[in-house]
Amino acid sequence: MDFAPVLDGFGVVLEPTNLLYCLIGVVIGMLVGVLPGLGPAATIAILLPITYGIEPVTAIIMLAGIFYGAQYGGTITSVLLRLPGEASSVVTVFDGFALARKGQAGTALGIAAIGSFVGGTVSVFALTLVAPLVAGFALDFGPPEYTALALLGILLVATVSGGSRLKAVAAACIGLLLATVGRDTFSGAERFTFDNLNLADGLDFVPIAMGLFGLGEILYNLEERHRVVHAPSKVANVWPSRRDLRQSSGAIGRGSVLGFVLGILPGGGATIASLVAYAVEKRRSKTPERFGKGAVEGVAAPETANNAAATSSFIPLLTLGIPANGTMAVIFGALLIQGVSPGPQLVTQEPDLFWGVVNSMYIGNILLLIMSIPLVGLFVRILRVRPSILAPVTVLITLIGVYTVNNSVFDIVLVIVFGALGYLMKKLGFEPGPLVLAFVLGSLLEDSLRRSLLIFDGDPTGFVTRPISGVLFLLFVLVALLPVVQALRHRRRAASEAADAPHTKELV
Amino acid sequence: MSSPHDGAHVPGSPGGRTAAGASPQGPAQPTRAGAPVVDDHRSPEPDLEHMSLEEAVHLVEETEHEGRPPAAGPVTNVVTALAVLAIGVAALFGSNALGLGTAAGPAAGTWPLLVAVVTVLIGVGMLAAARYTHDAERFTRASLLVLAGLATMVVFVVLLPVIGFEIPAALLCFVWLRFLGRESWRLSLLLTLGLVTAFYAIFVGALSVPIPHLF
Predict the structure, then answer these.
(1) DSSP code string of A167-220
(2) Is residue B101 a part of any domain in this protein?
(3) Which of A87, A270, A362, B153 is surrounded by the fewest CB atoms within 10 Å?
(4) Closest alpha carbon within chain A to B14
């Protein structure tokens, strides 16, 4: 492959503005990772308005920094407080907190930081090699392939997003319906606007994302009983010993590879990667009984894997234009706002943007390593900021921020409406991720479907006779039927287990 | 794993079961010392060895749900399913009005129709599964806090065009700090003043955003 654009990308990153925004991004990411309550998706959504004023590359460098920075920060609360700051750090709690109780919190944090750094960096490097190949392969995708790919992406995210699958698909359908609001691009007909002029151009992505992810989450957290937080005032000796490093080097290596692979799969992402990496280490270990009682590998593996996965989940977004999870959907929206449509042409048509963002992750990971080892004390102190103080600040930033986008009061109304909807959804067991993802992909999906139907002259079998779209549709059907098969197998297994003597279940 | 167990807890009386028990907290959970322990039936160190991936994902979700209200009853689930169904049916009628077109000549209503049909099917499925659904949370008295929070935002957006953002913002901020967050009067007042001043300085002063303002 041609490495000149890759190197030019470093030139883009090293521009002072981009370096500055990379730093801002990773610091914010680290902060939201540390502070329980707001996740990376919510933070990125809330910060969307400020991306209007800056260059596309700079904006995406910052937003990406928030995303992978949060993976570093989430570790700190897991280890010190037994409160995972992020879903992807939940498994870290088992061994991380056990280490902290033995007075080795520093070791756990140090190993996690090094693992995160290695995982992130390996993953960026692999991304550099793999992404252009994927993009090259996808270049001759036509409308039918995009229809199949978008459908598969939405279904996969809905399947893996946690909670009930039915509800996740319901959320996705509502997202698709919301995307149809406004003028139809083919016929010019006004759809579902209820003669409201504000809706004629369709719903804006920003108030929807800010409402569902941002306000929805804040409102949802209001109900939570506030837990008393006892943050230790300082953490000693963050530099891990040589023995710890040797013990966890295998876990870090395997975690990087596992995380990278699982991160590429739509819906996979950091949480699953951390779980699988932990399970693999425990199974491989000669002394599995140490796990859960303070094994360094038990911290190294999931923390490495979640960072590797966070990085590699940029691949489907940047090469196919299909976001792999809710957070990526927000970044997709940010790109669209900037007038950049992510897809296979991105690598060749906007090499500065593509390689600028990818290479900024090397720098970001170095910055994060510095922040998580020598400066970890600062972030531990931030744990003492109470959520009750943070909440009104975020609400005001959201309400005023959304106004600044179009200087429109109607947008504030929208953000409140979607905030209420986001709260109700979380309350009733719907994930907002699939809705936002489906909303973002909605117009692409409808466009490609209608174009394909025109190409096929109305014959839907055309989707399955083309090789690539056929395979994608086959996968779609398999994924859709998977829950049914699982339920049947589960029932049969339960029946046979009841009959036989109890025997051990399969791991993973 | 989101068990009927949870449903047994009385909302609003956190730690009710432990209070009755002999030892409220095992020595294995020192950090939770300040927090009320609701789910005392869960072992502190879960055994990942005998766990499928799906169960592990469940565990992650459960950990995230610590300190949350208990699961909702079947009525909530039926209402939720009906709401999804209603959205689907409304979209059906809407797409019909737009013109359904044909496969060879799709019209404005073709795609909404397809999505609406799936939505209706999902709604029916949810209705059928309503009795076995445990992932919705019950609305408790704490939910009133959310209503209050929403009310402050509505007041904000109604007053903004009339009297500018300063007073509504201060109001919102103060209510959230003092009444929703239970901070002290002093801290709430000082923080409110500080925050609104900061917002004024940033949005009106530095960025000159054309947001309606009083001063």
Answers:
(1) HHHHHHHHHHHHHH-EE-TTT--EES-TT-GGGTT---HHHHHIIIIIIHHHHH
(2) yes
(3) A362
(4) A225
The percent of residues in chain B predicted with pLDDT above 70, rounded, is 69
CB B2 within 8 A of CB B59: no
Within-domain flag for A507: no
Q: Which domain holds residue B32?
A: 4-64
User: Mean pLDDT, to the nearest integer, of A316-327?
Assistant: 86
Query: Residue A186: what pLDDT?
Result: 81
Count: domains in chain B? 3
- Out of B38, B64, B90, pick the residue that ends a domain: B64
Of B42, A318, B46, A295, nearest to A303 (Cα)? A295
CA angle A398, A404, A408 (to 5 degrees): 100
Q: Is residue A93 part of a domain?
A: yes
Q: Is residue A462 part of a domain?
A: yes
Size of chain B, expressed as the number of residues it contains: 215
Shortest alpha-carbon distance between residue B22 and chain A (Å) = 23
**Domain membership flag for residue B107:** yes
Q: If 0-12 CB within 10 Å is exposed, 13-18 middle and 19+ buried, where does residue A403 land?
A: buried
CB A267 within 8 A of CB A431: no
Give the pLDDT confidence score for residue B13 in this predicted structure: 36
CA gap A280, B48 in Å, rounded: 10
**Comparing A3 with B98, which gets the higher pLDDT?**
B98
Closest CA to A274 of A235, A249, A309: A309
Q: For A451-464, what is each residue's pLDDT tens digit? A: 998 888 888 888 88
* Average pLDDT of span A310-330: 88
Question: Does the beta-carbon distance from A507 to B110 stay under 8 Å?
Answer: no
B11: left (phi > 0), else alpha (psi -120 to 50), else beta?
beta
